[in-house]
Amino acid sequence: MSTVITQAPDRTLRCHSSEAPSPGEGEVLIKILASPVNQLDLLVLAGKYPVQPKHKYNGESIVGYDGVGEVVACGAGVTNLAPGDSVIPSQFGVGTWRSQAAVKATMLQKISTPKAAEFACLLRMAVGPGYFLVEEIRNLKPGEYIIQNAGTSAVAQYVTQFANRRGVGVIHVIRDRPDAEAESVKTALLSLGAAEVFTESEIVDKVAALKQSKRITLALDSVYGASGSTILAALSDEGTFVHMGFLGGVNGKLQLGPQDLFGRRLTLRGFRGSAHMAARTPEEQGKLLDFWVDLFNKDQLKLPALGLSFVDWRTSDGGQAVFDAVKRAQEAKLGQRKQVLIFK
Q: Which of 44, 102, 130, 220 is the most buried (most CB within 10 A)?
């Protein structure tokens, strides 16, 4: 049997069971191994993302935009994939919140087999952005520093891992929380390779000292508002500020002083990881994905130090475990880890 999660027109999620699909011409049948609940999925569920799900079941959209699967069978005309291959979606809207899927081979990207499926399901939305932010925004030099807020995110943790490979230090800024919890989070990030970790309250009084002691050439802002303004202020002259998201809400204000552009000669940029990946040919994308998997298989990249929250995919409860995972992601409570659906 195959199980699938869909979204009804009233935006409620539903769980369905059916016979396993068969691949048609140009299609492959894959079994899903792991699929994360990303911020992008939450935007899709809220009807706030322009790319809509491409597959339906009983007229309802099949949700889930990222994940990793294994090819089970190939339909007629498929020559670039074979049973046993590991694959990830090559475009948004494939619908990965289902145990099995028959999809066009052109919607999938073959990758080297990872030693853990949960790493592969993070490739496009966490590992990739971390790599591009370090390698393609500016020419970072050993001894320089990056400062980033949303410091517990999976992307932030991969920024640190890739930066460390270049001899670049990373300063993490995390949300305020009880002292004991803050120390635990700081310990985890420092063990991953962070140079320093501060809470939002602490960083405000550290900006001047940081600017005197470190050359901070790149600031990565996923929060906006006051938090973004603080890490912008920490930049050294001729530094680059990158805006990535609005975790603090869209109504905040980014404080840009009259000397930031003229006197300090700062550069301000927006970032979308999908655009960096799309700039490559399919062959180039495949080589880059395999490079990341190879680093992971050799223990040169690690899963996020603060961990992931694994949710067993099951239907005996009518999909309630999955629905609860989505709800936790939507609530975004302090200390909440990324929810990852694991298919047994």
A: 220
